Amino acid sequence: MMFRIFSHRVDWLALVVSLGIGALFAHTMWSMRDDHWAYQLRTNTNLSSTLAKGLEWSLEAVDLSLQKTAVALQETQALEEGGQAPSPTVLLDVLWRDMQASHILVLDLQGRVVHRAQGVQSVGKQFVSHDFFQAFRTGNHQGVFIGQPTRTLIMGEYVLPVAREVRNKYGLPVGVVVGTLRMQELNAWLSTMDLGAHSGVNVIREDGLILTRFPYLDSDTPQTLAGSDNLARFLASPQGSFVAVAVIDGVQRLYTHHRVGRFPVVVNVAQSTDSIVQGWVRSAWWLGLFELLLMASCVGLAVMFSRELARRAVIESDLFTEKERMRLTLQSIGDAVVCTDAQGRITYLNPVAKQLTGLSAQEVLGQPIEWLHAPHDDAALSSSASPLRQALARGHAVERVRTAVIHRLSGQRLEMEESASPVLSASGAVLGGVVVLRDVTQAAAQEARMRQLAFHDVLTGLPNRLLLQDRAQQVMVHARRTGAMLAVVYLDLDHFKQVNDQWGHRAGDAALVHAAQALQAAVRESDTVCRLGGDEFVVLLPELASQEHLLSIAHKIQQACAEPFVWEGQSHTMHASGGVALFPQHAQSWDALLHCADMTMYAAKQAGRHQIRMYEAAGRSSLLTRTGEPDAA
């Protein structure tokens, strides 16, 4: 699975870099943890040292008062057996006032208060059950003794007893002098130190009794560490530090301890390991998340980059394949293909285009597209833009425009059907163009031939009935708008059957061609001569100036039809009979007008032939011209 995901060398490089970032982060965080631990250890060591020194000064002050009191009592021999000696009250009051000492009690061997300084309820109260009294009574303790905190020495106040034995001048014990250290002041001092959750400061006696701790628990129930490994470590050296699990609550803590001078007391700062590393853990989490995000981003970007490279490789392969396919297609396509840039300059010719134009790619590269086209005969067409120019300007394809190309070598003019399309970018910008030229020279010739056959007589080449009708509609519209005279002459060749019978149908066809040519020569360019079929012809005469003008043209037509026809050395003279109808005098529609002329033509035949007559109302006709008559005009 991993080999499928990391399929590129960039992916593996990114993975190695990410692992390096992770290793560097882990090393940095562990170093930060060690530095943080070392800093906290130094801080706690300094704190425990300061607390031990402060407590030592306080205990030294109390112990000094006790020592002076004991010396004073010994020198005055104030305490004798049975308590019969005079009271040293005055002397002690002066002594304690000079020392600014207070809360000092003097006990006899029965544990009764025989003298008090301040704050003691009454003389005579017994403290025989207290540990500081029992320690001296058994004779097993020498020097100063730190007792268990109690409220009985001073009414309503929690104090730490500090006691010394009192001896007479013979060195025999006669009582105990007890001083107090106010726990309220000590705990207020300790409360200023915020060490975190499950952390605090402990003051422990050498036998394991906890004299006080902060957070301070106001309880008379003593707690002891006697027999524990932690106590053994506290007593093993005057100062030190270690990590262990607390005996009382089972919390792992960092302990830094100092012995309080010469007193049998140890001060230790106990800080929960969780609170020590809490800030570091919080930072480690945030930095770890950032590091994981950085690693994931590095790997993700590498995977995306490699996939993009793979995608581009596929695209390039597809583009190459498509390019080859297009090249082969352009090479084998039957149409001429020309490619240009956005300015219409030629950039490519396929083989068919080279063959049609007689040009090589070197000759046309960089030339404008117009260089390929032959000049137009029509001025309107020559002034219009080429299809490619239109496609580049409009941004869409131009389909099937008829144009022409001159073969540069043979000079042959080739009719082309041209279509052009712009090449657009993804944003719609024009990058170039493609022109497709299809040779329609034969098709154009065939089309012209079909058009000729559709609208012209096959034998004479004259317009046929369809073309005549179309032109008649146009000139009738013009005549109606301008009021000009329009005439239709319906002609039929006289004695045409004799030519066919005497010389054959080939001679008859030649006679028809001879008559068609003669009629075309006799009329104006604006007139139309049409063969309806057989030996019948129609001449359309628009824009006649007058009746006399019509008569002149009719006479020319009569004379043209009477020109001798020669066939195989023999001459034959043909005449024509015709009828004339005028628009709009005789009819309003083309069919009616042609019918009037046809009827008049038959009237001319019945009247003896060789004449052209004019249509009149009620189907009558009048002679317009006869063969051999002078021109009336």
Would you write up a description of this structure?
The chain has 633 residues and is an alpha+beta fold. Helices cover 44% and strands 26% of the residues. It has 17 helices and 24 strands. The strands form five sheets. Strands 1, 2, 3, 4, 5 and 6 form a six-stranded antiparallel β-sheet that branches. Helix 2 packs antiparallel against helix 3 and helix 14 packs antiparallel against helix 15. The two termini are 110 Å apart. The C terminus is likely disordered.
Short account of what is shown:
With 633 residues, the chain is an alpha+beta fold.
Sequence-ordered SSE layout with sheet pairings:
Blueprint: H1 2-5, H2 9-76, H3 89-99, E1 104-108, E2 113-116, H4 131-137, E3 145-146, E4 150-154, E5 157-167, E6 173-182, H5 183-190, E7 200-205, E8 210-214, H6 229-236, E9 239-245, E10 252-259, E11 265-272, H7 273-332, E12 336-341, E13 346-349, H8 351-357, H9 361-364, H10 379-383, H11 387-394, E14 398-406, E15 413-424, E16 430-439, H12 441-455, H13 465-482, E17 485-494, H14 496-503, H15 505-522, E18 528-533, E19 536-544, H16 547-561, E20 564-567, E21 570-573, E22 575-583, H17 590-606, E23 611-615, E24 621-626
Parallel strand pairs: 22-23
Antiparallel strand pairs: 1-2, 1-6, 3-5, 4-5, 5-6, 7-8, 7-11, 9-10, 10-11, 12-13, 12-16, 14-15, 15-16, 17-19, 17-22, 18-19, 20-21, 23-24
Helix pairs in contact: 2-3, 2-7, 14-15, 15-16
